[in-house]
Amino acid sequence: MRRDLNLKIWVYTIAIILIGLVALYSATTGNVRVSRGIFYDQLFCAAVGIFIMYVVGRIDYRKFFDGAYILYAINILLLILVLVSGRDALGARRWLTIGGISFQPSELTKLSLVLFLGRYFATQRSVLTFGFMNKTQLILRDLFFPLFLTGISMFLIFKQPDLGTALLMFGIFFGMLFASGLEYRYIIGFSLACLSVVPFAWNILKDYQKDRLLVFLNPNIDPLGAGYTIIQSKTAVGSGQFWGKGWLSGTQNQLNFLPERHTDFIFSVIGEEWGLIGTMVLVYCYFSLIRYCLLVSEQVKDKFGMLVCIGIVSILTLQVIINIGMVIGLFPIVGLTLPLVSYGRSSFLIFIIMMGFLLNLSKRRTIF
Amino acid sequence: MRIKIIRIIIFILFAAIVVNLFYVQIIQGPYFFRISKNNRIRVVALEGLRGRIKDRHGRILADNKVSYNVMITPQDILDKDKLFSFLSEILEMEVEKLVRTYNQKKFTPFTPVAVVEDIQWSQAVNIEENKYRFPSVFIQKGFKRIYPLEDNSAHVLGYTGKINRSQKRRLKEYGFSYQSIIGKTGVEEYYDSYLKGDQGGIQIEVNSRGEQVRLLSLKEPKKGQDITLTIDSEINETAQALLRGKKGAIIMMDITTGEVLAMASSPAYDPNIFVNREKRRKSAYIFKNPNSPFLNRAITGLFPPGSVFKVPVAICGLDSKAIKPQTSFDCKGYYELAGIRFGCTHVHGSQNLAESLIHSCNVYYYHLGKMLGSEKISQYAHLLGLGKQTHIDLPFESTGRVPSQKEGLLSANRRWYTGDTLNLSIGQGDVLTTPIQLVKMMATVVSEGIEVQPHVIKEIGGITTQKFDFERQLMIDKSVFRIIKKALVATVTDYSGTAHVLDIDGLYIAGKTGTAQSSPDKEHHAWFVGYLITGQKKLAFCIFLEHGGSSQNACILGREFLLTLQKNKKI
Questions:
Q1: What is the pTM of this model?
Q2: Residue in A219, A236, A298 nearest the CB of B36
Q3: Could you report the predicted ipTM of this complex, rounded to two decimals?
Q4: Which residue segments constitute the domains of chain B, with CATH numbers given?
């Protein structure tokens, strides 16, 4: 049974990576602006990634527990560094170059936040307070203090500006808070409070972010900019119909209709060339992976492991749903990648590490 | 338990995605398939009309004219050679040149390329008539900017052009694209956000002949706002005409409001050259011209003010109680300091303050400057707005500088000699000002210490701007200004005054001349900065001639300027 679960995680992870590589090969065919080099780069990342996944699966995971706070602190420093001296790309500061390697600290935050919150909720939350703490103090400790610490990284990522990832951080926080076992009334109260803040949050958005949200509501208001992308990507996915147009013969993709088709919009390539069959297979792979991840979280014996599992589940679910939803016009374009499929080293590596972590937990779930 | 809830939520989310994929790919699939198979979606950008610019009397200074552009959709080309030979025949252009522009601008198979811009109406009709033979070609109606007054208002207006790379990066979030037209200098740049129209566009489905079948979506372009300037184009034209062939600047400003009525800088350029295809070649010559026609001498040019600077020095002396109006110094034609002679124009004899301004006696100011010291002089000069920006609403304004001992040490680490103070007192040495600073200073003197904000904007979109309607009272005694003004009037009215040329019948004119040394091998700069009071208006003005020789030349030009205005009933 243990072996079995482990094997399934391997199988689905690799299946998703392979689907991604096939799609990326097509996206880089006969194209001037997106060169074939990107495909080989991803191929290399995949090979290295599988090795990393194996290694992460073998490390004693208490080491992650010990390093969680430090990692998060370092991550916040890196995020500040990005804002101060980062590299601009596509109108946003997301990249940091250290020792010749450039990466996105906001991607690392996904991992470090999960570990951090996992440790925090796992250690702080104990029912026995021996009467030393009243209700207010408990709420402060279990809800507002972790919210504040999450808020720091959210704010820094929002400043880059990267609204999508910042909101994702909130999703992670909410998922893990829910799993941490906080009483329902507080969770419901907190959710209502968050909803009431939404109208105010509108005002701090940048103009182009507002535009994107408005365009999402009605793509026709900006047929040249963001609305163009939505219409084109929807056309690509829809035109795949049931069987798809076949590998390397997607016309929308080949004829430069789609911007960013190797990163955020890779799903449209899959949808066009492999049709409903292809998209269903991919969605099924993700769904299975998430399902096994939940299975692990149920069986794991310690709270840290369970919470980290839930964190990973939150990220995977949100990114998959939002990315696919964005391509077919269900969500605004917020710039979130499709896990393990979109091109991008930082993103790819972080998800690989998460999968390794999952392996790790699934192996040890009976030991503790 | 909680994990079960999470599992249910995840299941619902995935189910929603599956249902939507099914809907898009199966139910709507055939529709999208048809669109993608024909590849018949065209995106056409519609440029928002730029706001017009008018002068204070409503005369149009910048307008838009319809132009016709030849567009080619790469995907629809049937026979490339035939197409280009056809176009070259109609447009009377070489085939190679057309092909070259086409290849340069080609972006994607479905984005139309503007091969030739601004063709004649007859040519456009001719091309449209042959559209059945060449489905890839169509005529797009666009707009081009025209400046009816040509070089008569160039420096205030500025010009427009395609956005460049750095501007694009900076302004991307404000809705600029690579095709956007943007103001490059002058009012066109400063008020670009108001003038600029919002870009719109259409997405259309076309048939195999390139004709529109269906409108998929439309975003109406929005017109920019019209702008009215405080400039009186007739005064400006008079000024520009007088400066033709010379280098220099003329400014005229309303003293009570700070409205700039005229701002001429010479040599000027014709802003139309950046718009017009035939004239565009000329712009290269202008950029290379050693007399730098693009420099707006009125606000960007930095020049030593010469004797005009005696006005702030005199104000400084009176206000700090170093001298009284009747304090006299003897002028022997020179001033000796450590064996070096600092010269004066004449041997003036005994001079009091008023006489020193009337005759522009240097020796008086050597004495006074030495008494005051450089710190105090530069403090008052700064107070009166010299050596700092006026913050007029035009781009590229220079700051200038009024040096002093402390500042010299701090910034240049240079020793300060008493000789430097003497040079400073007569506006020589390292003092650098812009003409607009001197006009503003003169206005402050006339209104006895009330400082206004020079500006060129009057109305935006029909609404009067009140942004510049404010005044500031300087902490200088009013009686000081009255004494100075009396002397400035006498400079014109007195027979021995340096600006007696300007004593025109029926006009109340006052002011100060200045002859500033520039480089040894070139002529001096000629200045006249003064004011004019009529029944209705108080106007400050400045006549400046770069390397124009003696200040007399500026005065003579000023006389012609004011006489013309008087004749045209402008003042």
A1: 0.62
A2: A236
A3: 0.90
A4: 42-228 (3.90.1310.10), 233-266+299-567 (3.40.710.10)
